[in-house]
Design goal:
With about 100 residues, the protein is of the alpha/beta class. The chain contains 4 helices and 5 strands, in the order E-H-E-H-E-H-E-E-H.
Amino acid sequence: MTQQITNDNFQEFVNGNKPLVVDFWAEWCGPCLMISPLVEELAQEYAEQVVVGKVNIDENDELAGEYGIRSIPTLLFFKNGEVVDKHVGAASKSVLETKLKGLL
């Protein structure tokens, strides 16, 4: 299951002891809604190894600004508190899974 990440709880997740994948999205974004089930599947399949969270940019614009999110969906891949990879736009599950595996 994906975690709801907000401006207030982001530091808990990014400084946690597991790698983190953050999906920046919005309710009105078609491509975001298209990849959402894929992100959820990956969250379930890799729950023991990685935390997968979602940031609604309309409700958490501070985070979106801090990470320079200009297009959505954007997925950021964090390891040891640092962004190590990024994906912008819709993608297949295999593309996202390859990037996720890069964190392990």
